[in-house]
Write a structure and sequence with these properties.
The chain has 492 residues and is α/β, with parallel strands linked by helices. It has helices at 20-35, 55-67, 77-85, 99-107, 125-134, 154-165, 183-193, 224-228, 231-249, 258-271, 278-283, 407-410, 418-428, 437-456, 472-479, and strands at residues 10-15, 44-49, 87-91, 113-118, 143-146, 173-175, 207-215, 284-294, 297-299, 317-323, 333-339, 346-353, 371-377, 381-389, 398-406, 462-466. It is 34% helix and 21% strand. Bound molecules: 6-O-phosphono-beta-D-glucopyranose.
């Protein structure tokens, strides 16, 4: 199937079009694309919901969402007007009164590209796709976009994929992992495959271990209900962290196209050594935040967050040790860690190089030396610590010194939001940065046994105070082999 290169006039139909994701991410990102000239003049957005809004209601809601978005700052009145004119609302009650499908049919123009965006819980994705099919709305070129969660285990993920796959060919399905739309995540591929010097070092001979961290200061907020059915393993590890691991560990693809890149990511997932049996207790740590203080403000513990039971074993923190069992990575631990209500919001990949094989200088095993840090957020950039001589006469003294590439300082341009990039790609028909079904299922195949093993353990997640570095168990996990998390040794 040829990939289309540029976006054309498209009817973008957003199911869940008045919901949280649409207002917080999709509409502001579409506005930014419009403002920066990346949206075809003929593209229209049809928000579908059960809300019975008029077009004017939707446009008011969208205008506030755009104005309130941090990347928009001040909405330009002419652009905002032009953007709002693209929007309309159609009420469809999926599984209920069928007349909504006729209204949707009337809202779409024949002969234009169609993208159906499912910003809805996964259990209604199948019913929406059937409804679209029954209404004759699915043209051969139509695409469908799916949001996570893509199921809550392998079986439910297969069920959702089967239901959507019954209507749309796999090449027409765009599964979003918004981490893949982040600038620095794409830059990781450029760093690895557009520079010649890293590849010879990118293996177990020169790399001691890898750390992948996604730490947030926010709690679950109003999402306690969802979170109790998910937990950090399903919410962050199964998708975002494993995708980062794939991009870090994958072999060079033959070209930058959807199947070459995704084939290589899949091989990484298939090489993950299963975490089962006793290894689950040894190599994983679960935590749950208690009360505490984040940046000086008192915050609730997870169990006090509204919308859920007073007792829950849901993990808000996970740390684990994974192994990619292949020739390149044998023996190199990949430490993955994610948590809510941590002391600092920080997402980064740390490649920790080995020490020199033979030292002629004393003290070369200094903390923090020989680390390559790919910082996804905040302060996107790449940071390499080299050992350097401290200036001065007398005894030779070494110190880790940073080589910094800050994207903000180097490129005088705004980094687009992840959704801007992903929406552009969907509109252009490029699925390289989206997850293929086999990838999603391979990830569940690895994650499911860990969750099952946790359910069988008598232990519960370790409580950590909000605003801390997570549970002590995470420090023991990495400390067992004499290693430390990067922030404890970050050169100041
Ligand atoms: C989402 C998770 O996928 O990613 C949220 O459901 C999490 O729980 C969010 O907060 C983190 O995304 P970002 O872009 O803020 O790092």
């Amino acid at each position: 199937m040829p990939q289309q290169s540029a976006s054309r006039a498209t009817d973008l139909v957003v199911f869940g079009g008045t919901g949280d994701l649409s207002m917080r991410k999709l509409l502001p990102s579409l506005y930014l694309l419009d403002r920066d000239g990346h949206l075809d003049g003929g593209t229209r957005v049809v928000a579908v919901s059960r809300d019975g809004l008029t077009d004017a209601d939707l446009r008011d809601k969208a205008a506030s969402a755009v104005r309130g978005h941090h990347a928009v700052q001040v909405a330009e009145p002419d652009v905002l007007h032009r953007f709002l004119e693209r929007l309309s609302h159609v009420t469809v009650d999926v599984g209920g009164d069928p007349s909504g499908w006729d209204d949707l049919t009337a809202a779409l123009a024949p002969g234009r590209d169609r993208v159906f965006y499912l910003a809805v819980p996964p259990m209604i994705s199948g019913a929406i796709c059937r409804g679209l099919d029954d209404a004759g709305l699915v043209t051969p070129d139509s695409r469908v976009v799916m949001e996570k969660p893509l199921g809550r285990d392998l079986a439910s993920s297969r069920a959702v994929n089967d239901a959507v796959g019954a209507v749309f060919d796999e090449s027409r399905i765009y599964r979003i992992d918004h981490y893949l739309g982040k600038e620095t995540v794409q830059n990781l591929l450029v760093l690895r495959f557009a520079n010649v010097f890293l590849e010879p070092l990118w293996n177990s001979r020169w790399i001691d271990h890898v750390q992948i961290t996604a730490a947030e200061t926010v709690g679950v907020g109003g999402r306690r209900g969802y979170y109790d059915t998910s937990g950090a393993m399903r919410d962050m590890v199964q998708n975002h962290l494993l995708q980062l691991l794939c991009l870090t560990a994958m072999e060079p693809p033959a070209s930058y196209d959807r199947d070459s890149v995704r084939d290589e990511k899949l091989k990484v997932l298939q090489s993950l050594r299963p975490l089962t049996g006793d290894r689950v207790a040894e190599d994983t740590v679960r935590g749950q935040y208690g009360r505490g203080s984040v940046h000086g403000s008192e915050v609730l513990g997870y169990l006090d967050e509204p919308g859920g039971p007073a007792l829950s074993d849901t993990e808000t923190f996970v740390a684990l040790r994974a192994e990619v069992a292949n020739w390149r990575w044998a023996g190199v631990p990949f430490y993955l860690r994610t948590g809510k209500r941590m002391s600092h919001a920080r997402s980064e990949i740390v490649i920790r190089f080995r020490e020199v094989p033979h030292t002629i200088f004393p003290g070369t095993n200094l903390p923090g030396a020989g680390s390559l840090v790919i910082r996804l957020q905040p302060d996107e950039g790449i940071h390499l610590t080299m050992l350097a001589k401290t200036p001065g006469a007398g005894a030779l003294r070494l110190r880790p010194a940073p080589l910094e590439l800050s994207f903000a300082d180097t490129f005088a341009t705004r980094s687009p939001e992840a959704y801007e990039r992903l929406l552009t790609d969907v509109l252009a028909g490029d699925s390289t940065l989206f997850m293929r079904r086999d990838e999603v299922e391979a990830a569940w195949r690895w994650v499911d046994p860990v969750i099952e093993a946790w359910n069988g353990l008598s232990t519960t997640p370790e409580t950590y105070p909000a605003g801390s570095a997570g549970p002590a168990g995470a420090h023991r996990l990495i400390g067992r082999t004499g290693r430390t998390w990067y922030e404890e040794e970050r050169p100041r």
